[in-house]
Design goal:
Blueprint (H helix, E strand, L loop, with lengths): L2 H8 E7 L1 H4 L9 E6 L15 E3 L5 E5 H9 L3 H7 L4 E4 L1 H8 L8 H24 L6 H19 L10 H8 L5 H20 L9 H16 L1
Parallel strand pairs: 2-4
Antiparallel strand pairs: 1-2, 1-5, 3-4
Helix pairs in contact: 6-7, 6-9, 7-8, 7-9
Amino acid sequence: MPPVALVTEHTVYACVMGSRAFGLATEGSDTDRRGVYVAPTPLFWGFEKPPLHVEGPAEEQFSWELERFCELALRGNPNILECLHSPLVEHADATGRELLALREAFLSRRVHRTYAGYAADQCKKFTADVRAHGTPRRWKPVMHALRLLISGRDLLRTGSLVLDVGDLREPLLAVRRGEVPWREAEAWLNRLTEEAAEAARTSPLPEEPDRARVEDFLIRVRRASAG
């Protein structure tokens, strides 16, 4: 089966991500589409396994096979968790709706490590740029690092993941346009990092995700597909 056919024929969940889901879209923003497909179980029986992910068929479209998607979500991968909480769902069949109903099972205090870790890696790049050029070479990643830290901090505080930045839209877009001095942006990043660490210590989230519940779902999907 061609990889793209897995997306066109076996997608169980699809949504819009990126700036449109975050409330940060501008006139020139792309439409980033993400999805989850279920590779038919018989495709796993031979030596050649189905792909873990597929790009396309549309531009800015990327999809994961269900098992890979669940693995990454259980690890607290920000991109994957945010897909499950997109306010812009374009498709969800019965399996997709069950996946959405499971989204709380993927959440745990692991998100502090993944969200803050990604932001820390980005900050190293920003700092290197500032040393070499006096300013970050690109401000869009700075905005997204701030957005990710805000989202992760609030998730740790409340136990709920909300993507839309709300009334922080204009301050974040000002960062993207390079209108905020680096020292101010850096101070904001540092403050959010400290707040996320504090939130992790008192978070209502469990220490670990509910792996057994997710695995039960995956096994049932595989069995149904095998028939």
